[in-house]
Structures are given as C-alpha cells and as structure tokens.
Design brief:
CATH class of the largest domain: Mainly Beta
Distance between the termini: 20 Å
Strand order of the largest sheet: 1-2-7-3-6-5
CATH architecture of the largest domain: Beta Barrel
Largest sheet: 6 strands, mixed, barrel
InterPro entries: Aspartic_peptidase_A1, PEPTIDASE_A1, Peptidase_aspartic_dom_sf
Strand content: 35-45%
Shape: globular
Number of strands: 27
Domain Peptidase A1: 3-324
GO molecular function, one term: aspartic-type endopeptidase activity
CATH topology of the largest domain: Cathepsin D, subunit A, domain 1
Oligomer: single chain
Order of helices and strands: EEEEEEEHEEEEEEEEEEHEEEEEEEEHEE
Disulfide bonds: 34-41, 247-284
Organism: Oryctes borbonicus
Amino acid sequence: MEFYALIGAGSPGKPLKVIFDTAWSTSWIMSKDCPIRKVGCWFHSKYDHTRSSTYIKDGRSYNAIEGTYNLTGYYSRDVLKMGHTVVKQTFVEMTNVPYWYVFTKADGVIGLGLPQNNINPFFNNILEQTNITKPVFSIYLNRDKASNKGGSVILGEIDKKHIHVTANVPDKITYVPINAASALWEFSMDKIFLKVGNKTIPVCNEDCTGLPDTSTNSIITSQEMLKDINEQIGAKPFYFGRFEIECDKVNKLPFLTFVIGGANFTLTGKDYTQKLSIGPFTVCISAFTAATTVSEQNRWFLGGAFLSKYYTIYDLGNKQLGFVRAA
C-alpha cells in the first residue's frame, strides 16, 4: 500500500503522483532525462523542464548513497502546485532510481523533513511564500482499503476531527521534543515492549530513537530487534525481506507498546499485519522489516502501521512532535 497525492510541477503543471515523506528533506521528481535503460523510471510520469515557463536552472549534481543503491540526478527550481497552494521549490530531477521503483505508483517525493544542505524543504517554503503562517502540519493516514481516501496532509493546523474521542472528550496529544542534533523528525522513546500473555518482554530499553516515516507502511528496525520480534510473534520468512504470519493467529498476537513521552502507544496484531490476496491465496504479512540503508541504521522508522493508528503533529515552531490516537 502506498500513500501518495497529486501535484503539478512547472507551468503548465505536469501532473505527478508524489509521496509526502517526513523522513526525507529533499524533494525530487523523475526527470525526462532518466535514460530508457534505467528500469526504475519506466511507466512513470516525468518532469520536462524545457516545457515549463517558470523553470530556473540550478544544475548542481545530487547523489544519495542508500546502502545497496544510489539515487542520482541534478537540482532544478520551479513551481510546485498542490491544490490552491503554489510554491517556488528547489528539487532534484532524478535521473537514476533503483529498478524496483518500476513497481511503485509514485513519480517522486515531497520532503517534509527539516532544512539541511542549504535547501529549504517544501513546508518551510510554504511558510515563507504563502499566507499559511502557523509553523505546524499534521498527517492522518487511513489504511482502510474499503475507503477511497488515503488520508490527509493538513498544512498550518491540527484537524480535531482526526483525534479520537473518549467519553465526549478528545484524547490528549502527547508532545516530545525532536533531537536537536538531527536534521530529521527524530525523537527519543522511553522504551518498547511486547506483552505476551501475562509477561512483559523488553524490546528496547535504552537509546530507542524513533522517526515517523510517511513514505512506508512498514516499521523498520535493526536486524537484531527484528529477530527478537519475529521470534515472539511467530513470523516466518516470506519474500523480498518480508515475514509471514498465520492469518488465523493475527487476533492472538502479542501487543507491542511504544512508550513515548511517558504515554503508551500500543499496536495490536491487526495493526502490525496486513492481509494480502495473491490470486487464490491469502497471506498475512508482518509490518516489521529490517534496516537496509545507511539512513535507517540505529533508528525505529514508524511507518503506516503505526501512523494509521496515531495522528501525528509536526510542530516546527516548537521543534516537537505530537502523537494522539486517530479517530
């Protein structure tokens, strides 16, 4: 499952599907300069700066080394249009992406991370160039396949309709500071544990660093942590680095709790598994995967399995993150 939205790039606007990515600061879109031999660019819409009247050349090269693969391209500047919002943005025209991008629907990424490398992320430019002045955005993700709405990116505010209500009172938002030394929405968690029957089994008791990641449906952790979790939930190797759980055991799986800012954020087996139908077969896939890239090491990347249950507030002004159960 992918969460993506439609934007327009350039003038006239080239329609593109993009992922709004809180774990990435740089925005990028596939370029018409991606050569035909690069399989990852096949079947995607591509940006052609020669057809845009608002294009401004930058030309600096871009190369991100992500473990087993590279992302390469060059910087350009043009307008990006999202709904009625128009922003002048520096982004990467990507000319090389991994082959497996051919299986994705997205044509690019809008980085919602923090400023780095003298590049302003998309939301920072919105604050500087539009009438949105409150330095906060929030994201609601919906994993209900029966719905045609994948979620919402709310710029400049918190939408109370996405906050769970208990006894007519909205649940309290738990705020935690982001790590000052990081250029990402990185934060410290108190601990992580599994509840197996009456037993509490520690998963992480110290140096538990989290990062909300809207670009993935998975929860990404180290090989060691993944091995421990898989042993407790009975997950077996599947394909493409994923793990399978017997579907009739999903409702009996142990609860996994992330303790953040002194509050418990708990996932049930149904939250951290996804049922897939492949022809006549049905399999249940665990959301937990192992870190494979340089940027994923020593962190817990909390993707859609977590973020679809907990509405998340990104408070740039106070440099903090807010979490609350989603309605």
